[in-house]
Sequence to fold (532 residues):
Amino acid sequence: MTCGEAVMKLLSAYGVDTVFGMAGTMTLELYRGIARTGMRHVQCRHEQGASLMADGYARATGKPGVCTIIGGPGVTNAATGIAQAYCDSQPMLVLSGASATLTHGKGWGAIHELNDQAAVTAGITAFSAMVRDPAELPELIARAHAVFRASRPRPVHLSLPRDVLPLPVEADWETRRAPTLPMPDPAAIEEAADRLAQARRPLIFVGGGAVGTGEPLAAIAERLGAPVLCTNAGKGILPSSHALSLGCSILQEASQRSLTQADVVLLVGSEVAAGDHFLPRLEVSGDIIRIDIDPTELTSMYRPAVPIQADARAAMLALSSALARRKPTAQRSRGEDWVRDILAHNTAKMTEVEKLHARVWKTLRSALAADAIVMGDATQIVYTGSFAMPMEVERCWYYSGNYCALGCALPMAIGAKIGAPHRPVIAVAGDGGIMFTVAELATAAEERLALPVIVWNNDALKAIVDGMDERQIPRIGVEPRSPDFVRLAQSLGCHASRATSADHLAQAVLQALAADRPTLIEVRQDSTWLRA
Ligand SMILES: Cc1ncc(C[n+]2csc(CCOP(=O)(O)OP(=O)(O)O)c2C)c(N)n1
Ligand SMILES: [Mg+2]
Fold:
């Protein structure tokens, strides 16, 4: 067995059955391993596609997304998806090739040479290692799994030099058990329960780290009568239809104000990234109780009075039972009135363009089952969607406002559809964003994915146009000429159409979800039907 085969065999034993990649001469032995294990290999058209697909796969399945890429340009191309997964705490294993060990640091001009390749991704991974000997791999891969399963998940990058991958490996490598999760300190839970029970106006704010805490979250919110705000990553943990849900409305004024009105804020599994609220910093007036698996988050600018480092689910279950033993001051009905009031204020303040966006979301919602996954790009319609697209189920709405990389939605949706083939998945991107990764439509067509890809076309990089107009800066480089999206998609092997009415859009999405290939559906912002 070569080292390349041994690595893939070990990953297979850890449960990896799909990899996203682009082969090269330096990674040939990895492909011998892929063949040997019978893994599914999804061939991207650009390594940014591979890393973003791996990210989308991780979001849809909860399992690490794996990519196999060459060193040098493969790594620099993949960097965007790796960095996004880092920002959004997603598990991802990047296996890259590398030039021969002896050439490292010499500047001899080896093919795909990248000075200190491990360092290139060090800042966007939990760890990045250059493997020098096959014998290092069982420990490094066990360490990657420990990061994915027992801490804040983040990408891991292993560089495998072209002279290491063909080396012989005699014995079979074995998997190692993942460490247990950190449990909450009982004294801190009691203190948190005391403070929450005594609060007059408690409020709860949950992020992606709170996924999986649905039942204790609802129980705590109901016991306290506390409104629940969420970030984009936390959408659906408490269903949007719950009377205490404020949804992901943190972009909106009345929701932002609520954080200055609450006397105690329970903040769970979130760094409160600026990409979710577009402010340098949210103002929070009351005492903060924070639960986070990452101790470094607990010292950030959202400084907690009670910092609890723990697995969020374990901590929320403990907090819920501690609260069941106390009589809270706040009342459920008051909390529900407060939520109604905030949501009404938010709705009254919506702009005309947001109302157009909301019309599209309403149509999409009507065509999609509750467990459908929506992958959003950095486009204005998705910013609005964070509050205008309700979600009843967690892990269904993804918009990476934090890294905010144009082009992420299509490859993420491809990865998600491959990981969760029986669930509806759609991508929503702007006319600017779709062009970054449009080549991956060919990947989706080749994989025969029933994937609707909505392109919100306003003939502009509108978010930037608005910024320039506001500051009276001439519009430079923000009105690119788009291709004919319908013909472009068709030439890449997809179905395609342009929405002519709300009904047509809903029908087109339903058809696309049952089609034999992806379908690009263009929705023009200047459509008269949107204003009808
Ligand atoms: C990789 C990358 N480059 C640049 C930007 C800056 N940027 C943010 S939004 C935006 C405009 C996007 O245009 P489009 O996709 O058409 O969406 P719209 O704002 O028009 O809805 C740009 C250029 C970015 N977010 N990501
Ligand atoms: Mg646009």
The chain is about 40% helix and 15% strand. The chain has a mean pLDDT of 97. The longest helix spans residues 332-348.
